[in-house]
Design brief:
The chain is mostly helical. It has a domain at 30-74. It has three helices and no strands. The protein has helices at residues 28-31, 38-51, 59-74.
Length: 75
């Protein structure tokens, strides 16, 4: 009996995948970023800090809160 030769398979072609749609954002401010100036954020963050009694440390808490509030209101 004759031996049969096995042919080597050609490498698989890369599959085309459908482009993934970006994840839906539930926050309206995240869907449409609003331009807020550094100065506006600074002023509001300073007000928050003063309202909290001028505590030491963690100034970023007031900064992030000011950013969120300004961007949320502007949208």
């Amino acid at each position: 009996m004759a031996e049969t030769e096995k042919k080597a398979k050609a490498p698989a072609k890369p599959r085309k995948t459908a482009a993934k749609a970006p994840a839906k954002k539930t926050n309206a401010a995240a869907a449409h970023p609003v331009s807020v100036s550094h100065e506006e954020i600074r002023q509001l963050a300073h007000r928050f800090w003063a309202e909290r009694g001028h505590p030491q440390g963690q100034p970023e808490l007031d900064w992030f809160r000011a950013e969120q509030e300004l961007r949320g209101k502007a949208s």
